[in-house]
Each structure stands twice: as C-alpha cells, then as structure tokens.
Amino acid sequence: DLCKEFENQVKNGRLFCTRESDPVRGPDGRIHGNKCALCAEIFIRQFSEEKNKADENLRKPDEKVKRDTEKLCSEYRDRAQNGVLFCTRENDPIRGPDGKMHGNLCSMCQAFYQAEAEEKKKAEARARSKREAGKAPSYAEVCSEYRQFVRNGKLPCTRENDPVQGPDGKTHGNTCSMCEAFFQAEEKEKKKKEAESRNKRQTETTPSFEELCSEYRKSRKNGQLLCTRENDPIQGPDGKMHGNTCSMCEAFFRQEDRGRAKAKREDTKELCSEFRNQVRNGMLICTRENDPVRGPDGKMHGNKCAMCASLFKLEEEKKNNGKEKDKARSAKVKREAVQ
Length: 339
Hints:
two-stranded antiparallel ribbon, 6% strand, single chain, 51% helix, Wheat Germ Agglutinin (Isolectin 2), domain 1, mainly alpha, 7 helices, 10 strands
C-alpha cells in the first residue's frame, strides 16, 4: 500500500527515482532520501525473493528428472569414464524423463553422463576458486577422490585440458594428472623408506659390504681389483657365496660402479627430457646463447641445449656401434654355417 503509486513504473524489480531530498523513514527504521528511493529498495528485495522461489521450483523438477534418468542408466554407470560413454548407432528411439528424444537408451545415458561430468567440472572450478581465495588445501585433500583408482603409484588419466594449480604452485594439465604426479612421488618416498628400514635391519644383524671391503678399496686401480684364486668361501651380506673375500669385494665394487653409472644416465635423461622430442637421428639443433653449464661428464658447455646435443650424439654413436656389432656377429654366424 505504501508503494502502490510506483508499481506501474517498476521493470524487472528496478524503480528509477529522482534525487529529490525529502527524507522518509522506512518500515525497517532506516532513513531514505525520499519515498521513491524507499520503494525502490522494497521492490528490489521483493523481486530477488520471487526469483529465488522460482529457481527453487525449477530445481525440484530437475532433481526428479535426474533421479529418474539415473535409474534408467544404472546398467551403463560402470562403462562411463569421466563423462564418456561409447554407444552403437542402433535406432531404438526413446523419450527421456526430460522430454527429449534420443536415438536409443545408451545415447540418452551418454548425454546425461556428459552433462553430469560438465556439472562436476564446474563444481570443481568453483571449489578451486574458493580454495584459492582462502587457505590452500594439501594434495591429500585434493586427491582423496582419486586414491581408490591408484595401483602401485599409477593413476590412469585422460588428456583433458583443464589446467589446475597444485598446492605447491605448479600448474598441471588437469586435476587427475596433478594427483598422478603426487601419488608417484608418494610411492617413490614409500619405497625409499622401505629400503632404508630394510638396510637398517640388515646392518644391525650382519656387517655391511663397506665394512668387509674397506681394506680392499685402497687396492683398486683404474676401477679394477686384482684377486688371487684362493679358495676361502665366504657369504656376503646379500646372502650370496663367493670364492674369497677379495672376489666378493670385486663383485661389490662392480655393482657399485654400475649403480653409479645407471644413476648418472637417469639424471642425464631427466636433465635433457625437454629436448628429447627435438632430436632427429641423434642431432639436436641449438642456438649460440651463452649460458655456460657443466655436464654430467664434468665438461663445460656453452648452454644446456649444447650439453644435451653432445649427450644425444654419444647415445646415437653407442646405438650405431651396437648395430654394427650385431651385424658382424650375424655375418660371422652365416660364414660359419656356410663352412
């Protein structure tokens, strides 16, 4: 009744008023510039309340449609992965609970799961924005829903492009790939701890190779340890039997060298992984940028790319030498067969 005179001027809950100064107190006890400004606020509040009610009424049928569709599509739930469901083109028209026509039941469920996945992505994006605005959660919290799919630290993911920033600040292709990296690092750490505890147990019960072979390490020359054939059997900390202590230490030193070489190769591969896809026949084309870097071999190179180019070249040469040896071996076998 207070604002009846302004009702015919309202459009979408908005009432435009002049700045006339004629203060008036509203029903809420607040003072407004004039009667029109008071009514403008009342109409906006009424409009937003009506809109919220209308949205709730719209959501109720949507929830019913969703429940009915879930019941119809229960047999396809196990086959749907990340909103993707593969269907045949069988022509068996069906009307969905939402009133739309679909080619067959599977294609209807495909559309439903796709919409569900998109809604999930939007919810994740909203949650991510909310998290970024507040306290950043840990990897364990973000990746809790993916843990059930992990096997031996591996998590199968799609290549969907939905960039996400992890708690450590790094950007990943999508949430799944971010969690995959987290679970791999977690598995690696777990194995490391298991190895450390195993080594600790072995150390407590038996002397280590280091202790047994400390006196022989000084006798090595150019990575080799010369031993006699003296027969004095001994069991190493690894449980294997050796002819004598010297031969046992020789085997240990060789294994140690192989381990170091392997670690060095892995470090080199990881170091140059960014250039791997640019290599053609062992050749890597680099700029002449001056940014000196020391390689795993101890040599200085003009820049990282130049260092990787020399490593890739060595790899290619080793590969070619191996092929030549195989050819020579096969040729020798053929000659012997002919003779």
